[in-house]
Amino acid sequence: MPAKPAPIKKSPAKAAAAKEEKPAEPAPEAPPAEAAPAEAPPAEAPPAEAAPAEAAPAEAAPAEAAPAEGEAAPAAEPAADAAPAEAAPAPVEEPPKPPTPPPPPEPTSAPLNLTVEDVNGTSVTLKWKEPETIGDSGLDGYTVEYCKAGAADWVVANAELTVATSLVVEGLTAGDALNMRVVAVNPGGRSEPAVLAEAVPVHDIERPKVRLPRSLRTRYVRRVGAQINLVIPFLGKPKPEVSWLKDGEPLDTKKVGIRNSDRDSILFIRTSEREDSGIYEITVKVDSFVDKACLTLQIVDLPGPPASVKLVDTWGFNAALEWTPPKDSGNTEITGYNVQKADKKTGEWFTVLDHYHRLNATISDLIMGNSYNFRVFSVNKVGVSEKAVTTKEVATIQKTGIIYVPTEYQEHDFSEAPKFTAALNDRAATVGYTTKLLCSVRGCPKPKIEWLKNQMVIGDDPKYRQLSNLGVCSLEIRKPCSFDGGVYTCRAKNDNGVATVSCKLEVKQVIIPEK
Fold this sequence. Notes:
- The chain is built from two helices and 35 strands.
- The chain is an all-beta fold.
- A hairpin with a 2-residue loop joins strand 19 and strand 20 (318-323).
- The longest helix has 10 residues, at 12-21.
- The termini are far apart.
C-alpha cells in the first residue's frame, strides 16, 4: 500500500480558526497493525498507523503535527487502536510569560539620634544609631560629611564607608563652626541625612559635670521660716550656661535668688515658705554638652489638730474615743497623737497617751463619780500641733454599790501516811565502840517512831538512845557487845498508816594476837 503523505503544518492561530469554522469529524476505525506501510513517514510527523496499540488518543495528534500556514488542513488521522468516538478539540498552547523582574533596591531610612560625643581643638566625635528601616538589601555603611556654617560645600570626612555607629572627624581647624551630618548607604543609594540641629564649634572644651553634694542627694527638709542657702558646684570650660527649673517651670526670681559663677551656682531663699517645696533642677550647658541634677526641697511646719474627736462609749472605769486625721499634716507625715484627760472638778489636763499611732483608744483607770473631758493633739517631725480638738460629750463614771465577797478557798489536805525517804543501811561495829543507826521519814500528822531489835520493841533501855528531829531518826548503841548484833527495825506510824525500814548490825570482837 503506498505511504500516506505527511500532514501539512499549520500555525496554532489558523488551526484554532479552522476548528471554530468546521467541527471535527468522528474518528474512523483504525486499520490493523499489520497493514502498516513499509516506508517510514517523515520524522516531523509520524503517521498514526505506526503508533502501537497503547498510543495516545487522537486529540494529541494535531498538536504534534500542525499544518503549515497557508495550506489546507487535512482530515485528522484516526488513532491505530482508537474506538469510533467523537474527536476531542485540540488544546491551544499559550506562549510562556517572561519572569517578573525583582523590584529595584530602596535606600534605607535616615540614621537616628545623631549627637556630639566629644570636641577638642582638632576633632569632633559623632555618635548615632542605626536607621529604623534598613530593608532586604542590607546596609553597606555610613558616610560622615561636614561643612562650615554658612557654606554649601559638604566635605566627606571618611574616605571609605564605616560600619560603626561613631566616628572621630579629625584634622579640623580650631575656631570653625561646622554643620555635620551622617548618611546611610546601601545598594539602593544614599538615605536621607541625619543633620545636627546646631553648628559645632571646634575648640578645646571640658564637658560639664554637676557635683551635687551628698546632703542634697536625698530629700532636703527645713522648717517654715528657715533661711536656705544651697551651693551646687560644677565643672566645665569655657564658662557653662546655668539654668534652673522648679517642678519643670522657670524659677520665680522674686522668691528664689540664683547666683552663678564659673565653678558653682547658689540657690538662696531668705525666708522659706511651704510653697517653696518642690523638685529643683539645675542644667549646666557647654556648647551641645549638657548635664543635669535634681534636688528635692521640703518645707515643713507644725500639723493642724485632728479633724474631729468623739466619745464613743463609757462603761465601768473606761471611756472609748475615736478621732480623724488632721486636714493639715504640716507638709510631712503624721507620726502620732497625744491624748489628754481633764477632771471637771479640777480642770487640769493630764497626758494619758503619748505618740499614740491609732485613731481610736480606750482610756482606763478613771475615778468613780468623776466626769472627764478629753482632747487630742497631732504630732509630726516638727512637733506637736498648737491646738487640739476636744470632745463635746462628757464621760461620767457612775457610782455603783460594791459588795465585797471574799473568795472561798478549799483547804488543802496535807495528811499523808508515813514514808521513809532514807532507809537504814547494814553496818558492822566493833565491840566496845559506840555506833549509830540513821534513817529519815515524813508523814502528816507527825508519825510516832519506834525502834525494834529482832522484832522486839527496845523501849526505854538505857543502853540505847533514840532521837527524832525534823524527820531524821537515829538510834545510838552505846559500847555494844557481841550480843548486841542482830536486825534493827525503825517503825513509823500515824493515823494514816505504818511504815518500817530495817538493817542488819554485826558486832565484831577485836582479836589481839598473842606475843
